[in-house]
Each structure stands twice: as structure tokens, then as C-alpha cells.
Specification:
The protein is α/β, with parallel strands linked by helices. 45% of the residues lie in helices and 13% in strands. The protein is built from 23 helices and 16 strands. It has a 5-stranded parallel beta sheet. Strands 8-10-9 form a 3-stranded antiparallel beta sheet. β9 (262-264) and β10 (267-270) form a beta hairpin.
């Protein structure tokens, strides 16, 4: 066993020694891709969503230098051999190359030496395993020679694949060299098919774009915004969390309030690390404060894009905001507009994304606390003004200063675009224009605004004083309320 070639199953064994939520059926999804054109898989998810757990599980399953049958025999992947005959077929059958890119960067010390370090150390372990190995000029040719001696292809697993992109965010040469290394392995039709039975990469960011396309386009990507059939393996499902709470005698409703909110298709997903911390500590709190991810939030919400302060206020007030995720360059420095910032926050886990409505929201109480702390440190005049106005409004409300409350509510109503709401009636739905006054309409698949609005609906004067629009104004005006109070939008009567 080595550090990079066939690392064994000790990592997964230690995971099994603790409370473990069974995610082993993910193995079947990877098995389906072995020796097919779909052999390259990239799953991106936020920090603390189980990336390393999944990588270590796959290492233990595929690594032929060890016997992992005892680690899997009580898990779902092994319970129905008739339904999935791939389990025994591929269990401990391959040489595994495992790269934890965060650990590699730590070992190298200098980001410019990442690729030579990987090539040198993997080659060294290959020679140790296969003394007759012929070392070629190109690394992928050396790997091809190794497969001949081994009589089997490799399964390559790269954990935190995007660490060099994130750590070298201001060094384009580091990024270029690293992406060229990955291209040589995985975008080389001759070498890739000969060398790899399958490859699995996981990280925070989707694969870096080269222009408008993925730099390693042969990978099938499953992101936090579009996880598809990997959705239930991106975090803890509601059923899994209910089971954990029952087993640990913990309150499920509070667990849901604190850590739920990442809805993916029909799957409700929880932050797994925070759930486990809450169970171990028997305390509901924000555990993101202990991660480097929390330190970057203020930097991103401070970016000077038009409307950013208002958008953050909407999010803190519990209002969903529209976002176009398609133009994001999948790095930490290329921001063209507010949509790119919001898309990054989705990938970092600060926002949850709804693919049906194409909107983002703060998913739960844990993340809202991080937003609330960060927004008060943002040194932008507009953001500071909004926080102060919301705080003042709360005080005026408590002190029953009716005139001041009415004035501020009217100010927000006049200034701001209310969130998108629809009042359905006579097959026409309305949403509020930026003026906060008249609305624009949608009938069937046609939309009307401006001149078309005036010509088609001149006989109908519509004002944005419906109940849902008022709800949006109140949320926006009182967006800092959660620093002081709980919110109950509807009380039974």
C-alpha cells in the first residue's frame, strides 16, 4: 500500500468505526460507467458535504491491495446481489491512484510544483509495485505501460480536484499547468481508454471552463445545482436525518430548521457535517464558523455590482432571488455580474438553488447566521445604510413609533422592486415593476410590459398593493429581524 497508489481501506475503516450513514449505493452508479464512454465522473458539492468520505469509500471498494468485503457486507451495496451483480464483480479488483489535492498542495509547499510532485511520487510507487516498469517521457504512457504489467486498468480518484484552481486563483500559470495535466490524462482518447477503467473527481467547484466549454469536457458533471441521480449522495436526505435524530434522541424539527434547505429535485438535503456536529455536541449552532469557507463570504457579498446590497437584504429577509447560473466560469475570480457571485455562493453552499424556478435562497438558520454576521462587516455605504434602516425600523416597531414605521415601510415600497409574486385571476398573472406602482402581466405564454402593456391593458389599472407584494415589502424592510426575533408568517386563528 502507498500514499498515491493503492492506499488501502484504512480511511474508510475509520469512517465505519463512527456513526455512519450508508451511501454505498453510490458505488453502483460508478460501476455502471466502468469501461464505457461514461467512465469519467465529476461530482462537485460544498465543503463539509462528505466529499472525502465518498472518495475513501471508493478507494476501499476498488483497491485490490486489500480485502474490504467485511467493510461492505452489511451495507446496501452488498445486500441485494441479485439486483446489482456489479458489487462482487468489481470489489477489490483494480489498482487505484488516489490524489487528495489539498494534501498534495500541503506537501509541495509551492503551488508551482504540483504537477511534477504528483508525477514523481506516483511513478515512484508504480516502480515499487512493478520493478520492470518502463518509464516513458509522458506520464500517461508510463501509466499505459503499468497496465500491461498489472493486467488491469486503473481507477483514478481525485479528492478536492479543484484545490489548485482555488489556491492558485490569482496564478493563471499554475491553473494552466494543472489543467493541461488533467487534459493529458482524460482528454486523450487513445491513452484514457487504455489506462482508466473509471475516474472519479470531487471538489467544490465544477470543472473550470475554457472559454464557454468545460476544460475537460469528457467528464460527466453532477453539481450542487444539478446533481441528477447523485442527489441523494450529495448530503443527508430527510429520511436519513430522521433516523439519526431518532437514534440519538434529538429534536428533528429543530434539526430541519438549522440544517435543511438544499432541495434537489424531489430530495430534501441536509448539511451532513453540521448534522453530525449537532448530534455529537447536543447543540444546534452554526458550525460553519470553524471553516475557511465562512471567512470568504464577506469578500463575495462586498463585490461592487449594482443591486447586490438589495439582493443580500432580500435573501436575509427570506425572499427568493432570480439567478442565471449558466455563465459562471467555475473559478473564484471571474465575476462579470451579480449572477456570477450568486452562482459561486450556490456552489459554496451558502445558497440553495431551485432548478424549477431558477431562484436562490438562504437555505437554513445556520447559513443565515453567517450571512447576518458577514453583512454587518461589509464596508459599503449602501449595505451599511440598509442594515441601519432595518435595525431602526425594528426599534421603532418595538417602541410603537407608528409614524416612523409607516414612513420607512412607505420608503421601501416606493424604492424597491418587490419580489416576484403572482396573483392568479381570469387567467392573467401579475408581477411588480421596479416602480413599485403598476404591474406587468402575463397571459398564457405572452408577456406585456412598457408600450405593449399600455396598448393591451390600457383599460385596466393595476397597483402592487396585493397581499403577496405587501409581504415582500415587509420582508425587505425588516430583513435584519432574525438577529432579534423568530418569524411566524402565518399564525393559526
Amino acid at each position: 500500500m502507498g500514499n498515491y497508489l493503492n492506499p488501502g481501506n484504512s480511511g474508510f475503516s475509520s469512517i465505519r468505526n463512527d456513526i455512519y450513514v450508508d451511501k454505498s449505493k453510490m458505488i453502483a452508479l460508478i460501476n455502471e460507467t466502468i469501461d464505457t464512454p461514461r467512465r469519467l465522473t465529476c461530482v462537485s458539492r460544498p465543503r463539509r458535504f462528505g466529499k472525502s468520505f465518498a472518495a475513501k469509500m471508493l478507494c476501499a471498494y476498488y483497491d485490490r491491495s486489500c480485502d474490504s468485503s467485511a467493510l461492505f457486507e452489511d451495507l446496501e451495496i452488498a445486500k441485494n446481489p441479485g439486483q446489482d451483480d456489479s458489487y462482487q464483480k468489481y470489489l477489490n479488483r483494480y489498482d487505484v491512484i488516489y490524489l487528495d489535492m489539498t494534501a498534495v498542495i500541503g506537501a509541495v509547499g509551492d503551488k508551482t510544483g504540483i504537477v511534477p510532485f504528483v508525477v514523481r511520487n506516483v511513478t515512484k510507487e508504480l516502480v515499487k509495485a512493478y520493478p520492470e516498469l518502463e518509464i516513458a517521457e509522458a506520464f500517461h504512457d508510463t501509466l499505459a505501460n503499468a497496465t500491461i504489467l498489472a493486467g488491469t486498468k486503473f481507477v483514478m480518484i481525485i479528492d478536492e480536484w479543484d484545490a489548485p484552481i482555488r489556491e492558485g486563483k490569482d496564478d493563471l500559470e499554475v491553473q494552466r499547468e494543472y489543467l493541461e495535466f488533467l487534459r493529458a490524462l482524460f482528454k486523450n482518447s487513445g491513452a484514457t481508454d487504455k489506462v482508466f477503467a473509471a475516474a472519479y473527481m470531487t471538489g467544490i467547484l465544477p470543472i473550470k471552463k475554457d472559454g464557454s466549454q468545460s476544460a475537460i469536457s469528457d467528464f460527466k458533471e453532477y453539481t450542487i445545482a444539478n446533481p441528477r441521480n447523485f442527489a441523494e449522495y450529495v448530503g443527508f436526505t430527510e429520511k436519513e436525518v430522521e433516523g439519526l435524530c431518532a437514534g440519538q434522541d434529538a429534536g428533528f424539527s429543530l434539526m430541519k430548521q438549522w440544517y435543511d434547505g438544499y432541495t434537489m429535485g424531489q430530495t430534501s438535503v441536509y448539511n451532513p457535517s453540521s448534522v453530525m456536529e449537532a448530534l455529537r455536541n447536543r447543540e444546534f449552532a452554526s458550525y460553519w464558523t470553524e471553516t475557511s469557507a465562512s471567512k470568504s463570504l464577506m469578500e463575495y457579498i462586498s463585490l461592487d455590482f449594482d443591486g447586490m446590497s438589495k439582493t443580500i437584504a432580500k435573501l436575509l429577509g427570506g425572499i427568493d432571488v432570480s439567478v442565471d447560473i449558466n455563465g459562471f466560469a467555475n473559478d473564484l475570480v471571474t465575476f462579470r455580474d451579480q449572477d456570477d457571485v450568486l452562482t459561486l455562493l450556490i456552489h459554496l453552499g451558502y445558497l440553495a438553488y431551485d432548478r424549477e424556478t431558477k431562484t436562490a435562497r438562504i437555505p437554513n438558520e445556520e447559513i443565515r447566521m453567517e450571512f447576518a454576521k458577514s453583512v454587518r462587516k461589509v464596508n459599503r455605504d449602501e449595505t451599511v445604510r440598509r442594515v441601519r434602516e432595518s435595525d431602526r425600523l425594528i426599534m421603532d416597531t418595538v417602541q410603537e413609533n407608528a409614524e416612523a414605521v409607516a414612513a420607512q415601510i412607505e420608503k421601501i415600497h416606493a424604492e424597491e422592486t418587490a419580489p416576484l409574486f403572482y396573483v392568479i385571476g381570469n387567467e392573467i398573472s401579475y408581477d411588480v415593476e421596479p416602480s413599485g406602482g403598476c404591474a406587468q402581466a402575463q397571459s398564457g405564454t405572452r408577456r406585456y410590459s412598457g408600450r405593449a402593456w399600455r396598448e393591451s391593458f390600457a383599460s385596466e389599472t393595476l397597483y402592487s398593493n396585493n397581499e403577496q407584494s405587501l409581504r415582500g415589502v415587509i420582508k425587505l424592510a425588516y430583513f435584519s429581524y432574525k438577529d432579534y426575533y423568530l418569524k411566524f408568517e402565518e399564525l393559526p386563528s
